[in-house]
Structures are given as structure tokens and as C-alpha cells.
Amino acid sequence: MKFFLKAWVCLFLFCILLVILAMYSVSNVNEIDSVVDHKSLMSLQFLWSNITMKRDFQILNDGKYVYTLDLRQYREEFPYLQDYKCNKVSEPKNLCTRSAGFVNLILAIKSYPGSFDRRHALRKTWAQPQVIEDFLINPVFLMATTSNHTEMILVEKEMLKYQDIILWDFMESHANLSLKELCFLEWMIHCPSCDDDEFVYPPAIVKFLKRTPDASSFIHGNLRVHTEVLRKGKYRISYQLYSMDVLPTFVSGAGFIIPGILIPSLYRAATVLPVFPLDDVYFGFLAIKANINLKHGHGFYCWGLKFDACKYRNALLVHSLFEYDEKGMSPEQLLDVWEKVITKQNCTD
Ligand SMILES: *[C@@H]1O[C@H](CO)[C@@H](O)[C@H](O)[C@H]1NC(C)=O
Ligand SMILES: *[C@@H]1O[C@H](CO)[C@@H](O)[C@H](O)[C@H]1NC(C)=O
Ligand SMILES: *[C@@H]1O[C@H](CO)[C@@H](O)[C@H](O)[C@H]1NC(C)=O
């Protein structure tokens, strides 16, 4: 518990639409440690300012299965994913600022340019900059571009106004979501600092981090253990691309928490692994390559949780008001739930 105060942790949440990424400092650190920490981080950044992607044929082993990722096949089906170089059009100012004694928690939320009303609802509810105990909480929306010029003009205004959007120049699409993970890792490397239809309760996240002493050595989330590969539909993966019947274990739905100190090794993994066209699975592969263990955390209700204000107060995130509902919450539901949760009293916990 004592080593919680000066390193970075990221909380990444993604159900169908959400990524929360929290960066926070951990450790029992006194000022001296934190200075050292910062310095080594600076030199890492320096080293990485020149890193190039060297993607290649990869064989990964998670102790149970061996996965072969043949770059040629990935190039054939998803050339853009393999060759894209992250190019930011815009990013918020000041998100990288550190404050002594505080833990930075960045909530990274995957959003689409057209989801104006969702972002609006989030900014009024859980995605607002705030301080909870010794945690500085800052939301950031991860977005790419669309061909709708009107939308992009509105997004530009929104960026200037709220300073909470990172925009990259690739086109939004389902497969391209993996690029958000990749580019976000890259952004984190250079800045030591969810989909948008979910309910997230920041105080519960802070509580979770405080009572989980090993939070900085694992990626916590809703574990999906060796699930079956789908050959049809939106999550379809071709047999040529990936011939195994099972996927690697990954954290999904509910989202996950990444300690900032693990970001460099994840990013290093991203420089050599082919980019898998399903973002959460892609992250699973990165974790294997980086030799990072995934751990199940309670409180990630990816598949929904029937509304109960007290239960919601202890949830890290909830995707829907109903169990097994893929649709997620509407902006109206979010506002309503938020109001009820923050005003709820007399919960036993
Ligand atoms: C990056 O690479 C270029 C060309 O190889 C080199 O000139 C430059 O000094 C490098 N910069 C850093 C920060 O390593
Ligand atoms: C572009 O976006 C605006 C705002 O979201 C929407 O009203 C309009 O229908 C869109 N245009 C096209 C061609 O999709
Ligand atoms: C991903 O983005 C690129 C660049 O914007 C675009 O050319 C490509 O069509 C997108 N991929 C998909 C599957 O839409």
C-alpha cells in the first residue's frame, strides 16, 4: 500500500465505445524518489523520440497457447494499420503537468467526432476535471477524423473550448480503433502525464486503486479468457489472418487500468507486433509481448448492471442499465444516473 504515490498509472476502459485511461503516480515516495523517477522518465522520452516501428513476424506464448502473427498477412488485409504513423492534429494543453503529492489519473475515452451529445453528457457527469483526495482526475477524448466536414469544424471548436480532445488524422472505423490504442501509448510515452456510452464513477476508481496495493504491477480489468474467434459479423477475423480458434486473454468490456510504469514496455511491444484489427485483442497481444499479467478486477460491469444507486457508487464502470445489453447508455440515461448516484445517501459501504 505504501508504494502508492509517484508513478504513472493508466486506466483504460473500453466496452463498445469507451476507454478510460488513468495515469497515476504510485509509491511511498518522498521527494527525492520522485525526482529520480521524473528524470528517468525524461531520458526514456528522449530515447523514444526517435523510435521507429519495426513490425515483424511474431510468435507469442502465453503459457497455454502459442500465437503466430504473420506480418505479411496483416499487411495484406489491413495495410493501413501496419503502416500508419501516429499524427496528432491536436492535443490538450496542460494535461502533462505534474503536481507534487498528487496522483495523475487520466480518463481516456474513445469517442467519435459525431458523438457531440455524448461528450456533452460526460462533461456534465463523470468526465470532468476534478480532485478526489490526492488524485488529479482529467478526462481526455481520443478521436480520429471523419469525412463529414461540418462535424470536423464543430470538433475543432470543441477542442479549443474544452482542451480535452486528442485528435489523430486517420479515419474513424472499427478496425482503425486499434490505432487509438497504439497512438495513445505513443502519446503517453511523450507525455508523462471508454467509449462514450458508459457510466464511470471516479471516486470508486480512486478507492479501487487505494485498496489494490499491486495495482502498479498488473493491468486490471474485466478478463476475457481465451474466448472464441468469430468468423462472422462485426468482430470477424479471417482464417488467413488468424487460424487459431481462441483469442489470447484480454481485458475488455469493462475496461482496464494500466499503471503508467508499464506503458514503456507496452509501447515497445507495439513497435514490433503486427496491429491486430480488434482493439481489445490487440491490447491482449501487446500484454503478452510485454510480459505483463492481466488481472480480473471487480467492479467493471461491461455487460451492464441493473440500476441501484448504492451499487453504482461502488462500480468502476457500467456499460448499461440492463444486464447483457450491448447498446450502452444514452446521454439522457447517463445524466439521470449521475444525478441519482451523487445525491444518494445512506449506502452501507
Ligand atoms: C533521431 O534520428 C536522427 C536521424 O537518425 C538524428 O539525427 C537525431 O539526432 C536523433 N534524435 C534523437 C533525439 O536521438
Ligand atoms: C454531417 O454531420 C452533421 C452533424 O453531425 C449531420 O447533421 C449531417 O447529416 C452529416 N452529413 C452527412 C453527409 O453525413
Ligand atoms: C483507417 O484510416 C485510413 C486513413 O484515414 C483510411 O484510409 C482507412 O480506410 C481506414 N480504415 C478503414 C477500415 O476504414
From TrEMBL:
GO terms for cellular component: Golgi membrane. GO terms for molecular function: protein N-acetylglucosaminyltransferase activity. It is found in: Golgi apparatus membrane. It comes from the Eukaryota. Its EC number is 2.4.1.-. Gene3D superfamilies: 3.90.550.50. Residues 1-22 form the signal peptide. One of its GO terms (biological process) is poly-N-acetyllactosamine biosynthetic process. It is an enzyme of class 2 (transferase). Keywords: Glycosyltransferase, Golgi apparatus, Membrane, Signal, Signal-anchor, Transferase, Transmembrane, Transmembrane helix. It is a single-pass type II membrane protein. Belongs to the glycosyltransferase 31 family. This is Hexosyltransferase. It comes from Erpetoichthys calabaricus.
